[in-house]
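Hi X.,

You mentioned you wanted examples for the new student's onboarding notes, showing what a folding record looks like when two proteins sit in one file. Here is a clean example. The first protein comes first, with its sequence line followed by its structure tokens.
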Amino acid sequence: MTIRYPRPLRPGDRVGVTSPSSGVPEVLRGRLDAAVRTVEERGYEVVTGRCMDGSTHISAPAAERAAELTGMLTDPSIRAVVPPWGGETGIDLLPLLDFEAIGRAEPTWVVGYSDMSTLITPLTLRTGVATVHGNCLMETPYRPPEGLASWLDVVAAPQGRPFTQTPPGRYRAAGRDDWIAEPGIRDLTLDAEGAWTRLDRNGEVDVDVDVEGRLIGGCIETLANVAGTPYLDTAGFAGDEPLLVYVEACEDDAFTVCRNLHGMRLAGFFDRAAAVLVGRTRAPGSPTLSQHEAVLDALGPLGVPVLADVECGHVPPYLPLVNGARGRVLHSAERSQIVQTLD
């Protein structure tokens, strides 16, 4: 399968906003408006869909959400689609999306993480169109710390030109901002120090990691439910190239994460992994199994580098990763970085 990249966005392009899973409640419309303004400040026109209701856990019936998302992805005037955030049950769209029509259309960027992993990862695997696992619309007003990018930077990046991201060494350990009281807040609170952690080889830092492959991955809680199905089939993806697989946990405890990762491994999701990146998480461990231990228990048998506490999950800040991009991960005692090339 050849990876196809949507063309880079340029001023005047249209960005579609829809909620394939959860919409936005009225009390948070101020934050939504601030996020839309942030996109408009880049020179883009924002087109907001009808599926945005936030009064329940879904923005609209599944058929309507699927039709709106498919419509935006096949509309040549819309160059990118970004949801306000994830949700809970976006999996109900998978049998309703017209993957053939989406695959025939001119590629459009789709951005998201969390429950959006259930959609963007299958979109890349089924159609070959690259997607962005990155901060959603409601987080877009935040200024990325030095070393990291916003999804707005990624979708405007020139094809074929590598771009590098490096961990800032700080993250948000607890709490969240009050978007009702401060809907326009742009400064991230990063109140703790932290770096990438190597889990395999007993955490040795004197053995450097330098590995390349095609990026693919997403949220463990959502992807585990489609492991072993045609929606998460990595066989044949990007030919026979090795993969850089990234995963992250939102809130499941260590036992659940351990079981889910074992299941994904048994279903073949990690078969071609040259390395695994694991997002930093606040999810709980147990007295006998930490989150790091859960990952190593399930993925240690792969025999590849496993790097944890990467900024690709629910804990701010956010390190966008492009599903399908060629990636190179470097990690040593002196530095950590990931280089992505859209080719």
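Then the second protein repeats the pattern, sequence line and then tokens:
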Amino acid sequence: MFVLTPHWSNVHCSIVPPYLLRRLAAQQKPELSKAARAAKEALQHVPSFQASRVVPGPGRHPGIREPKPSAPERTVYDAKSAEQLPGSVVRKEGEPPTGDPAADEAYDGLGHTHRLYAEAFGRNSIDGNGLHLDATVHYGRLYDNAFWDGQQMVFGDGDGQVFERFTKSLSVIGHELTHGVTQYSAGLVYRNQAGALNESMSDVFGALVEQYVRKQSTAEASWLIGEGLFTDQVQGAALRSMKAPGTAYDDDVLGKDPQPDSMDGYVRTSADNGGVHINSGIPNRAFCLVATALGGNAWDAPAQIWYETLTGGTLSPTATFGAFAKATAASAKELFGDDSKEHDAVRSAWETVKVKFPGARR
């Protein structure tokens, strides 16, 4: 149960990394002029992303149960290519489809994300207390991004040359809403390793929303984030690959996916809030390794461990990879036992991606 609301200042957690937008904005080719203009427009919001900070609310209070999950309460708005939020209401909870793909995909995606958290984790919406789920579609003119602003979801339509509309990917919707879950639980600051963990938590649960809806096992899942966002002009499958960081795209315009798959490739940079979208590949792969080792459905034991770590109230807002790894091992031990396959899988995964922590196997 959450008794305080965290205060977020100028928070925008976006799905498309600024380094991708900068590459696109720098394009001089006439056939990419529309995409370059759209990327420049999206980059205007980057300073507000970098200014984001959080004062987190508390985690679950020991002995106090969260409210029983209630039905979702969704509202979808249309910004009509403006950048004023929230826009005009186009669909409320229980109303029939509008016929607008973006509005209906947003509505369905909000519901699917709510259902995963309710059914798999007993969570009552994003804040654990029945928060209404709002989303705005058709934000800006050919806007190349989607983001969580601390209160609601916002989706651009994409430029049509490089990016499709951002409601097309269910993993993107789940990703952005999970920024809200993090906001109302651990409050991981959006910078350096804590920021990369913030991004990774969103990738993990964004992938899980997609897998849960499709009823995919760990082996069947693609483990791709943002699959379907790129047009057929791009040589790439998605924005990120959790299973194989660094392989999601390799394109003459966008460049090669820069994510490392272990601490050997950790990127030290002041850009991208200290590499939050780049270095998130390391904890992403760790989760995927745990899920692969355990088999079955990733929303079961692997996700229970990660969810307990995120919401249990013990994780520092400035947690490092090592601190997070230690916390997941502790969660696995608490949930399944010291000698369990789950505990062993967690320790082995962090060992594979070369994140060291007290209690790790030598």
